[in-house]
Specification:
Blueprint lengths: L1 E9 L4 E8 L8 H7 L25 H12 L14 H9 L23 H19 L18
Antiparallel strand pairs: 1-2
């Protein structure tokens, strides 16, 4: 949880405080569960929600993760899986499209959305190579092993 805004007001008789927070939910939880757990008794703090974006998590062995890892290796890197508690475009569309996905991008993930965030041009160029390889692998997957049942006979083949 991160406080992103704080405002106080007072008119002599009443005082109020407005706090804006950014609450990142772990995968597997839903915003509705969190909202139901908040107290709603009279006299308790009131709250409102501006934006609700549900958490999403990639299957660690899914096709998109495998393709991105192949792209990273092909570009000379070493894939590192990172469980990120942020949002990406996939958070917005994943539950609607119901398709595999993953978040990927160049730069130091520790610096994401901070004043120190930056991406060197060489990292940006490498990410283009990574994505090109990943997209090619997703567009042209290797053939699946033949899993069709074979007839069983007692005759030699």
């Amino acid at each position: 949880m991160k406080v992103i805004g704080l405002e106080t007001r007072g008119d002599g008789d009443r005082e109020s405080v407005r706090v804006r927070i950014d609450l990142r939910l772990p995968p597997g939880s839903r915003s509705a569960e969190i909202l139901r757990a908040l107290p709603r008794d009279p006299g308790r703090p009131r709250f409102s929600v501006s934006v609700r974006i549900e958490p999403i998590e990639a299957a660690r062995d899914g096709p998109v993760v495998r393709a991105l890892e192949a792209g990273i290796r092909a570009a000379g890197g070493r894939p590192t899986r990172w469980r990120k508690s942020g949002t990406s475009d996939w958070n917005l569309v994943g539950s609607v499209w119901r398709t595999a996905g993953a978040a990927y991008g160049p730069g130091d993930p520790h610096l994401d959305h901070t004043a120190s965030e930056s991406v060197p041009v060489r990292d940006l160029a490498r990410s283009v190579r990574v994505l090109r390889t990943a997209f090619d692998q997703l567009a042209h997957p290797p053939p699946a092993p033949d899993a069709s049942p074979r007839p069983v006979t007692d005759r030699p083949t």
